[in-house]
Amino acid sequence: MEVIVLSDGEETVDEYAEPRRTGSTNAQGKRHRVAREFSDGIEGIVKLQQGASGTPKGVSGTSTDSKKARKGNSKVNAAPRVAPSKRAQGDYLRAREAAVKSCVFDLSKMPRGRFTTARTVKAMSAWGGLWPALREFMQNTIDHLGLAGADGLLHPALTLEHTGLAPNDATLVFRCGEVDVCVIRIREDQLVIDQAFTFALHPRALETGVLDSTKGGAATAGGFGDGFKTACIALLAQPALSASVEWEFEAPNGQLLNWRFVAAARPAVGSFRASKVLEVVVEDGASAAESRIGRTREASGSRDAVGSPLLRAPSMRQTICAARVGEAFVRCVMPRLMVFWSLAHGRSLLSTECGGCMLADASAQPVVPLAERQPEPGVYVKGIYVRKPFIDGLLMTFDG
After folding, report:
1. Which of 186, 188, 207, 282 has its Cβ near the most Cβ atoms within 10 Å?
2. pLDDT, mean over the chain
3. Taking residues 308-336, what's their average pLDDT?
4. How far, CA to CA in Å, does 93 sit from each of 14, 145, 297?
5. At 315, phi and psi to the nearest 5?
6. Can you say whether the dihedral through the CA atoms of 10, 13, 16, 20 is positive or negative?
7. Distance between CA atoms of 163 and 138, rounded to whole angstroms?
8. Could you report the per-residue pLDDT of 106-152, keeping only the tens digit for each?
9. DSSP 8-state secondary structure symbol assigned to residue 187
10. Pairing between strand 190-196 and 358-361?
11. Using an 8 Å Cβ cutoff, are 222 and 234 in contact?
């Protein structure tokens, strides 16, 4: 960790700093491999863009210059976004409905109780702070709901609306026409992610290496669920965060199912030291009408007890509590996930015809709403930050 100075002059620990080494989750590992495969090609592209000064045109030559530009270039206008077409919206909603059908099973036959993951809760240097865990949770949400298009930016069938201007009191709504697809509620020490088109998970997701036919099957590195378990462990292993993670699923018939992730103590035995193991308590919730989050269906556009718009079932709510998680999400996660961006027209140094690969100056882009800063320079694969850029100040995005 390192000390940084926030935009308001407050000095704090950079909990969001890039990990020192790569984690082992399936998607993260794949993205790092792809980034490495593109590195040689990027070096060639950069040489073509170099001017007489030896730096890419339009790119700051020093880290200090690029940081000043990202903070001060707030007047850059975003390129006009084409309004979603009815056809695109219809195709998107049909795809979400089909995805839900592939995940349905009989909830009455699903076991309840306390399940162990056989994963020890201990600090991991590559998962320190809040960024790695929040990236994993958001990556799962983006992938499951298809929030990103082929270029990593917001899917062309969706719109993104913001309510509230304060970083610790804001709501983000991803919407397809009149349908709320995902709602993110940001508070100082709490992050609530509501997502529609999400059927309850079976506890088999807690097994190590279990395969999911919708996520590449045997081609995945760690199997389904390895990422979210690691993210939960990373949060629970940091006492200073006072973290907790809870999930709630709502079935189409209004039935609620709760998952609570807990660090369960294990006593010392023989030569093995005492430790904590990640366990998940799976239990039935109240009926939808009596739920602690107050979900009702009395009127469209109604809101629940924590102020988020209600979503159509089947749906899922992720509640992540941790010290300063709201600030971490706004200041670090949003500038590192392309679904939250709007890019400036004509400000890329190089882009492909398909729109998924791009080389651009980060300081020439509009600020990310709420974050009050430009997108984070770096290498991005499918819209998600994977590492620092090869050349300071650049955005390098890839679609595969």
Report:
1. 186
2. 78
3. 90
4. 39, 10, 20
5. -145, 170
6. positive
7. 19
8. 998 999 999 999 999 999 999 999 999 999 999 999 999 999 999 99
9. E
10. unpaired
11. no
